[in-house]
Amino acid sequence: MKPNFSLRLRVFNLNCWGIPYLSKHRADRMKRLGNFLNMESFDLVLLEEVWSEQDFQYLRQKLLPTYPAAHYFRSGIIGSGLCVFSKHPIQEFTQHVYTLNGYPYMVHHGDWFSGKAVGLLVFHLSGLVLNAYVTHLHAEYNRQKDIYLAHRVAQAWELAHFIHHTSKKADVILLCGDLNLHPKDLGFRLLKEWTGLHDAYLETQDFKGSEEGCTMVPENCYVNQQELEPFPCGIRIDYVLYKAVSGFCISCKTLKTTTGHDPHSGTPLSDHEALMATLCVRHSPPQHNPSPTHGPAERSPLISVLREACTELDLGVAQARWWASFATYMIGLGLLILAVLSALVAEGGIREVAILLWTLSVGLVLGVGAVYLFHLQEAKGLCRARAELQHVLGRAREAQNLGPEFEPALFLLHQEGDKTED
Amino acid sequence: MKPNFSLRLRVFNLNCWGIPYLSKHRADRMKRLGNFLNMESFDLVLLEEVWSEQDFQYLRQKLLPTYPAAHYFRSGIIGSGLCVFSKHPIQEFTQHVYTLNGYPYMVHHGDWFSGKAVGLLVFHLSGLVLNAYVTHLHAEYNRQKDIYLAHRVAQAWELAHFIHHTSKKADVILLCGDLNLHPKDLGFRLLKEWTGLHDAYLETQDFKGSEEGCTMVPENCYVNQQELEPFPCGIRIDYVLYKAVSGFCISCKTLKTTTGHDPHSGTPLSDHEALMATLCVRHSPPQHNPSPTHGPAERSPLISVLREACTELDLGVAQARWWASFATYMIGLGLLILAVLSALVAEGGIREVAILLWTLSVGLVLGVGAVYLFHLQEAKGLCRARAELQHVLGRAREAQNLGPEFEPALFLLHQEGDKTED
């Protein structure tokens, strides 16, 4: 790599709100989005909530001359809603579907049916390896009583862990998407602390856009104003995050967001605001220890956030087990009713009602049986995330206890795989 | 790394056949397995089909003095059945649960409920990074008419892709497990061609054990003799596979299998045979191009196996879509019956029978609705694997068309992430 190496990367991210039959003016918005993307000619366009594969195919055709490479991440029953358009060839791609993603019986929320995931795209740009990740986490429907909190924390952990394990040879890591997490939320802190990613909004040299970088703002006519009532300037839940490894440095030159309108002041492109970042990657002389020289006091945020996440997952496991036990009792009740009704029918009681109730009880036993199995699986998924977290926590504590002279231990924890030269 | 660096690694792999209530002499076999492992003191013990977490906890306690590190991979409703015991500290672990794993309505086969997965363990051994993978793929119940073939091919692909994306900084890669694939099966060839892993049985300098290295043999009293009838010496479906990256070389000094008995000639430890390998990792001078200098002719096995896998996945997608369509018709039929019966009940016909049929139709509509959603998801999962395969196939073809002078293109395809130095 030449010492004066420099790479400019223009990135676009948008949650497109593309729910067939439900999202307003979908076709028109997709058309205008296509026009805008063609005009702006970004390096990389990362989209979420493109739920209809027809919409992706439409955009693909429209964007082909400007963005020859594209990929749609398929998963779950509906899909992940994630897709990407790129000016540069995609070398490789893969995806990870989150283990936990809401409840199938919460049909009106729909997240479970979508198969939320993180997509990975590998690019080779002028000899530099860029790993770009795009994701969409479980929505937050009630901030005061959030029944999906443990799932979202587990998703944030899986996302961080997936990035950690798949980016060990990447020079630059980029993560864009709708995280459904506010900047101070546990999941976001966990993600940032474990991956070391930087937040473009906080680090940019030049910001233009909505107040406090919000990506859902009351000015947007598609936004449910009632939901935003507690947040007068809106909420920031969509992000551009990045980091570079030793030998490179990355900075955010400019970050723009739309402000509740089309970039050309028409009706908005979505109910979310778009993020447009110009990133600059430069060569920087390799340092002995590229991780900042943390002292134990500075390392504690990782330990503290890991501990907090473990507690949240503990609560989630207890809740899942409670539901599984509840379902067991309900199955027992259903079987009891079945037995009583069978006896009634045999004795020639009120047959019509008995038969109806009998079939309803069979339905109850089968339905609740499925709920039981689901929560058993939920508990297993949460235990899995907790075990991974606890392992990392244990190793972070070890590194802290060993003191600053054992800094490399923590560095290895973060950058596992760096070969120790004898 | 010192030039005379050398590392000896003793590895044990066994599918434990640990199904609670169903597997014969489970407790006794676990006890004898524990004694044997303690006595032999391997570096790494990788086990499959430890379905009960209690069995894992029992082994953990028993093996603690010899194997201080252990991990149980939780997934699905029952679990993945995978666990590991190690003499060396586990630096990191994670897992990937296969997208497709049979059908929930094939309850008697049970694979869907188990959440089959691949587990990854990262070790740092004398400055060397070892990525050890353990896995168990979907069982084969009928080789002549295998309804799970597309799922197993997709699993083999996901396994290969997971290894590919998570091992980019590993010096040595080890994969052990019950692949439920014969050596010439499409899934196994796909895995070997895409990862470049070597088969310990084919490469070992010294082999002792069952004929042709079989891991399910007719001599084993727990094996269903009828299933093995077409294979007089048994089948080889459990493997130890490995590779080292540039700068290291790895060889298999010895490979042993049990031969249908306990290693001390008692009743066997499982219905599968155990694999015991002694691997030797040595320093080797870095080569300019560590991938063997393939000509286009030699590269064709990858292209050919990718093409074959694409065809198999195509068939799987068509089959999944057929089932989804069939389910749609059945839902229509159920709704029609419902309407007719509702009319009958309203007119005061044979009420008892009508009510019973009415509720049965509701059950039919709901049940078949679930089948429809399942096959929709199955088709999406198969399309996802096919898209990844097609992308790799496209790039492999490009590399082939560019001719031998463009060898680095294929090397980059295999070893993506290796930085091109300017």
Describe, in short, the structure shown:
The first copy, chain A, has nine helices and 13 strands.
How does this structure look, described?
With 422 residues, chain A is an alpha+beta fold. Chain A folds into two domains: 6-283, Deoxyribonuclease I, Chain A; 301-401. In chain A, 41% of the residues lie in helices and 21% in strands. Chain A has nine helices and 13 strands. A seven-stranded mixed β-sheet of chain A has the order 3-4-2-1-13-12-10. In chain A, strands 5-6-7-8-11-9 form a six-stranded mixed β-sheet. In chain A, a hairpin with a 2-residue loop joins strand 6 (117-125) and strand 7 (128-136). In chain A, helix 1 runs parallel beside helix 2 (53-63), helix 4 (149-166) packs across helix 7 and helix 4 (149-166) crosses helix 8. The longest helix of chain A has 52 residues, at 351-402. The radius of gyration of chain A is 25 Å and the shape is globular. Residues 289-297, 405-413 and 415-422 of chain A have low confidence and may be disordered. Chains A, B: This is Sphingomyelin phosphodiesterase 2.
Overall residue-averaged pLDDT value of chain A: 88
**What is the CATH superfamily label of the largest domain in chain A?**
Endonuclease/exonuclease/phosphatase
| Helix count from the secondary structure assignment of chain A | 9
Largest interface: A-B, 63 and 63 residues
Supply the helix-strand structural class of chain A: alpha+beta
What would you say the CATH architecture of the largest domain in chain A is? 4-Layer Sandwich
Q: Outline the biggest β-sheet of chain A.
A: 7 strands, mixed
Lateral arrangement of strands in the main beta sheet of chain A: 3-4-2-1-13-12-10
Strand content of chain A: 15-25%
CATH class of the largest domain in chain A: Alpha Beta
Which segments of chain A are poorly predicted (pLDDT under 50) over 5 or more consecutive residues?
289-297, 405-413, 415-422
Using the alpha-carbon principal axes, give the shape of chain A.
Answer: globular
**Domain tally of chain A:** 2
Name the assembly state. homodimer
SSE ordering of chain A: EHEHEEEHEEHEHEHEEEEHHH
What is the helix fraction of residues of chain A, given as a range? 40-55%
Q: How large is the radius of gyration of chain A?
A: 25 Å
> Would you tell me which CATH topology of the largest domain in chain A applies?
Deoxyribonuclease I, Chain A
- State the distance separating the first and last CA atoms of chain A: 25 Å
Counting DSSP E segments of at least 2 residues, the number of strands of chain A comes to 13
